[in-house]
Amino acid sequence: SQQGEEDPQALSIQEGENATMNCSYKTSINNLQWYRQNSGRGLVHLILIRSNEREKHSGRLRVTLDTSKKSSSLLITASRAADTASYFCATYSSNTGKLIFGQGTTLQVKP
Amino acid sequence: GAVVSQHPSWVICKSGTSVKIECRSLDFQATTMFWYRQFPKQSLMLMATSNEGSKATYEQGVEKDKFLINHASLTLSTLTVTSAHPEDSSFYICSARAPGQGYTGELFFGEGSRLTVL
User: Fold this and answer.
1) B36-49: b or e for each residue (b if 16 or more CB lie within 10 Å)?
2) What contacts A9, CB < 8 A, 6 or more positions away?
3) Residues 6+ apart with CB under 8 A from B15
4) Residue A59 has what DSSP assignment?
5) Which neighbouring-strand residues pair with A11?
6) Tens digit of pLDDT for each residue in B16-29?
7) What is the C-alpha separation between B29 and B99, in angstroms, rounded?
8) In terms of CA atoms, which chain A residue is nearest residue B115?
9) Beta bridge partners of residue B73, listed in sequence order
10) How many angstroms separate the CA atoms of A72 and A23, rounded?
11) Do A100 and B106 touch (CB under 8 A)?
12) For residue A14, how far is the Cα from the chain centroid?
């Protein structure tokens, strides 16, 4: 079963602009992770934020987590055409012991 | 870094035949691997958890006799789609827990296997 919603489903921006994707989830979590998937390929782990963290940075990526609202956001700054991909949030719950993925956001960065 | 290799990357088969997909952890041991299924423009759906040396745990709604999972060694899990039908056509992706990160850490994913059943 899916954990929650991602918003927007699709996003198209110009190179250099920032891209923000949101993720909501339903159950309590140990951590929330963001993954990237290029078309027709496997997933690549981007960043993990623990339930007791509110914000985390990695290069051009900034992730926030609001456990009271059960939501997270991924910000990609100064986007590049190579950032074109689908981005998925995934939540890990110790109750289930599984990593469950959101619906994903398809990002297109136009050169 | 840790690498998960999946083979074949794509396969076309006739309806009624069986197809085996292999998932290998190349430079680490994976006691647990996960099999996901992804339809076009959709998210990943967890099918089953593959445990080395024991039976796989299947998600609700996934037919264990249809999707046979074997995890005979610490570096290899296989998914066999038995008596495949066109509705089994999908993108199958395996993953393994990153070594040293415990049960809650990131997963390393294979490149996926696209199955087309004619």
Assistant:
1) bbbeeeebbbbbbb
2) A103, A104, A105, A106
3) B84, B85, B86, B117, B118
4) T
5) A107
6) 999 999 999 998 88
7) 8
8) A40
9) B76
10) 5
11) no
12) 19
* Residue B86 burial (10 A CB sphere; 0-12, 13-18, 19+): exposed
**Chain B contact present for A25, CB below 8 A:** no
pLDDT per residue as tens digits for the range B78-92: 999 999 999 999 999
Q: What is the pLDDT of residues A12-64, one digit of tens each?
A: 999 999 999 999 998 888 899 999 999 999 999 999 999 999 999 999 999 99
User: B96 to chain A nearest CA, in Å?
Assistant: 11
Which residues from chain B sit within 8 angstroms of residue A103, using beta carbons?
42-43
- Mean pLDDT for all residues in chain A: 92
User: Which tens digits make up the pLDDT trace of B37-57?
Assistant: 999 888 999 999 998 888 999
Whole-number Å distance between alpha carbons of B4 and B75: 9
Cα–Cα distance, B81 to B15 (Å, whole number): 11
Helix (H, G, I), strand (E, B) or coil at A32: strand
Taking Cα atoms as reference points, which of A110, A101, A111, A108 lies closest to residue A6? A101
Report the pLDDT value the prediction gives residue B88, as an integer from 0 to 100: 96
